[in-house]
Structure formats: C-alpha cells, structure tokens
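step: validate -> pass
step: tokenize input -> pass
step: predict -> running
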Amino acid sequence: MFWRGFVHPENKMGPTIKLALKGILLTGQRPSEICSMELAELDEKMEWWTIPGSKTKNGRQHRVPINELMQEVIKQAIAARPDGAKDSDFVFSSIRKFGEPVTRDGLSRGFRQNLKSFDLSENPATPHDLRRTFTTEGGRIGIPREHRKRILNHIDNDVTAVYDLYEYDSEKSYAMEKWGQHIQSLI
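step: predict -> pass
step: emit ->
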C-alpha cells in the first residue's frame, strides 16, 4: 500500500512533502492546488476547502469536502511548519523559503527520490498520478463517476451541464468520507 511508503526506513522525505502528498491522495486535487492551500480557504470547522478560481485549472471556484483523515493531515502540516513559517498563510509551508508554500517541483523531486520506498521503482509515478489513484480506486469502492468528476473539478461538457447548477456538496461530502474510510482501512 502506497501509504506505508511514508514510514519506510529508506524514505528521506521531509514531513511537509509527505503530508502534501497525502493531501493529494486524500482529496484528489492537483499538486499545485495542494501546495498553495491557505488557511483562509478552509472553513471554521475544517470541513470544506474552497479553492479560488485563480488557483484552479478551469478558473472556477471549487469546494472540496475534507474528510477526517485529511483534517489530521492539515493539523500535522500546520504543526510541522518551521519556526520562521509559523505565521505562514500556507498549510504546507516551505522549510527553505519562509512564508511561501512548498512547490510542485519540490513534491515531484521528493517523490522521485523515494520511489523505492513506495515500491514504485519499476513503475515510476508522479504526484499527479495520485489523482488517478483517487479516481480509479474511488470507482472501485462505489463512488459514482459523476461525483468523482466533480471532486476532481473537471468540466462537464455534456449539454445538460449548462442547465445543472446544483453543486453536489452532499454527494461530494459523502464520497470523500467514504474515500477517507477506505484509505483508513488500508493503513
């Protein structure tokens, strides 16, 4: 299981990189969106993350439900911030450039250098592939494709989509809870 790679003795990733990668897997969001997650984008109860359109690929604001496992990852990331970054706006703060987020390149480099820990040296993967894992495994555990598409923030080009203004928040929330429980059952 991928998650075990984070505690593998040969894994030399820093804690923030590990947590950001877990965040990609737990939310299905793009690496750049996870890297730039800000505290102000989280609701008071840490149940929803609202990504502004300026940070999304399609330019539309996107609401992401946060399951319990992801809430723990966020809390751990905040606690792991270095002294110079304690007041950072970013959840996943850089340990080198205080006040700035970890970078997508940093995630990719950390992942690439530790593929053996994840038993992926024969089948190299990237952080972005964790979205594919979310989508594929989410389907396997019964999360409807429409709900996975909405969680991924993919644009629906179906003609009916123009008329469907419903946000699917309760369906997305249920799907993310189910996903978090599935991951929890594997670790």
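step: describe -> The chain has a mean pLDDT of 90.
step: cleanup -> pass
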